[in-house]
Amino acid sequence: MPPYPSPYYRLYITQDNRQVFLRMELNIPEVHTGEFPDTLKLIKTYLPQALDCMCSNSQNLPFRQKVRDTAIGHLFEHLLLAYIYRDRSACPPVLPAVCGYTHWDWNRHPRGSFDITISLPRTHSSLLIPAVGRAVSLTDRILSSNMRKARAGRTAPHRYP
Questions:
Q1: By C-alpha distance, which of 129, 117, 122, 135 is closest to 96?
Q2: 50: how many CB neighbours lie within 10 A of its CB?
Q3: Is residue 143 part of a domain?
Q4: N or C: which end of the chain has fewer CB within 10 A?
Q5: What integer pLDDT is reported at residue 1 of this predicted model?
Q6: Rounded alpha-carbon distances, angstroms, from residue 157 to 29, 151, 152, 160
Q7: Largest CA distance in the chain
Q8: CA torsion, ordered 152, 38, 119, 124, to nearest 10 deg
Q9: Count of domains in the chain?
Q10: How far, in Å, CA of 128 to CA of 142, rounded?
């Protein structure tokens, strides 16, 4: 599938019978939600149920807390899961539990590259494209909110070599 259009990243998607694989490649230097102060406010406004998703992380923090400083790829994973979960009742047969995993290794891949795996059977793939579109839209809204503030001089974006 061709990459989804976003001014902030490229998103590639493949799928097998049981899972969806997404590769997110940021083209901005910021890689964590802590660099986007409106993240929590925007999620509360547009997709509050994403904050109630379970989250496995080394600090055992609920996503409601983790979202304040997590990798952008991990944020995208949770937004995508929340949209899939929200729309699941429209797609018979009953959708089994859907879970996701985000991995990055910036020693092997460029900084800002994320591999996201979502357990979504191909039988429910009709949920995927609309959910990805909505997750892209909300992620872009979050990222653009910080860019507008940076251009206005209210927030200096963090730059990394």
A1: 122
A2: 23
A3: yes
A4: C
A5: 60
A6: 9, 9, 11, 10
A7: 51
A8: -80
A9: 1
A10: 21
Tell whether 74 is covered by a domain: yes
29 part of a folded domain: yes
18-56 per-position pLDDT tens digit: 999 999 999 999 999 999 999 999 999 999 999 988 888
pLDDT of the residue at 159: 40
Tokens 């379970």 map to which residue? 54
30 contacts 38 by C-beta, under 8 angstroms: no
The amino acid that residue 114 corresponds to is F
Residue 105 has pLDDT above 60, yes or no: yes
AA letter at 112: G
Q: pTM to 2 decimals?
A: 0.87
Please write the tens of the pLDDT for every residue from 107-141: 999 999 999 999 988 888 888 989 999 999 999 99
**Domain range enclosing 79:** 9-150
**pLDDT tens digits for 5-15?**
899 999 999 99
Two tokens at 142?
């979050």
Q: Is residue 33 part of a domain?
A: yes
Within 13 Å and on the Cβ side, how many CA atoms surround 81?
26
